[in-house]
Amino acid sequence: MSCPGAQIAALPVRVDGSGILRVLMVTSRDTGRWVMPKGWEMDGKKPWDAAAIEALEEAGAKGTIAKVPIGEYVYGKVLDDGKVLPCRVRLYPMVVDKLKRNWKERGQRKRCWFRPRAAARRVDEPELAQLLAKLDSCKPGSQPWLQDLL
User: pTM, whole model, 2 decimals?
Assistant: First the structure.
């Protein structure tokens, strides 16, 4: 799939009280399927800063975001005219410090924490599912990006 569209996404995570890694997902506005907070790159913003803005607007999540993506995936974005634009999405991990009770898209989306393997089963994009599944066995000290963000 050729990818003319470039997007960024946050991978909001936290380590729960039992030491288990959790991934925060949101529902899409159109189909209601579970997705990562994502969007287009923003003029004047570094890509990781844009991903943090998407996490805040779509999920009400605030935290520390990595400046280096942990991977990327491809999906077909359905445009308003019904055409599908292939997009390559760079995924920036973010350790969530706070979830806001009220956020910009609260009335349009649901959010929920999942274990990485459960999150992987809920997404349609095979490359994203693989990235999430790899996180399932993560211990807090086992991933350099996670250790750096904690």
Answer: 0.88
